[in-house]
Amino acid sequence: MLRSLGQRPVTGSGEDPRVAGLRTAVSRLRRQLAAHPDFPDRAIAEDELAALAAMTARDTPEIPRLRRSLLLIAGALGSVSALRPGLSDVRDAVDLFGPPGG
């Protein structure tokens, strides 16, 4: 069932599927990062992934904060090609919350 942005789910657990999707994508990227050798901006990526994970504990994460974390993670992981698919999944999950500045 397709829903407009901002509407709540009517069935199931009552959790916003966008939040569940973001939680899954963040968890997957955190596991991939843990298995990857050290690189200079690892701490930044880990901190921002932890911030995103904490935001998924809330029902409606702050979109500007989601986007800020995404930019910092992208900057930290940008040169690590093995992590690009996981980063792309996180970006796609954040995009479901609406366009930048929207």
Task: Give the oligomeric state.
Answer: single chain
Mean pLDDT: 86
Low-pLDDT residue intervals, each spanning 5 or more residues: none
Helix content: 55-70%
Major sheet: none
> Into how many domains do the coordinates divide?
1
Structural class: mainly alpha
Key attributes of the depicted protein:
102 residues, mainly alpha, 0% strand, globular, single chain
Compact description:
The chain has one domain (17-95). 58% of the residues lie in helices and 0% in strands.
Give an account of the 3D structure.
The chain is built from 4 helices and no strands. The protein is globular and about 40 Å long. It has one domain. With 102 residues, the chain is mostly helical. It is 58% helix and 0% strand.
Any chance you could write out the topology, listing elements then pairs?
Elements lengths: L16 H18 L7 H14 L7 H15 L6 H12 L7
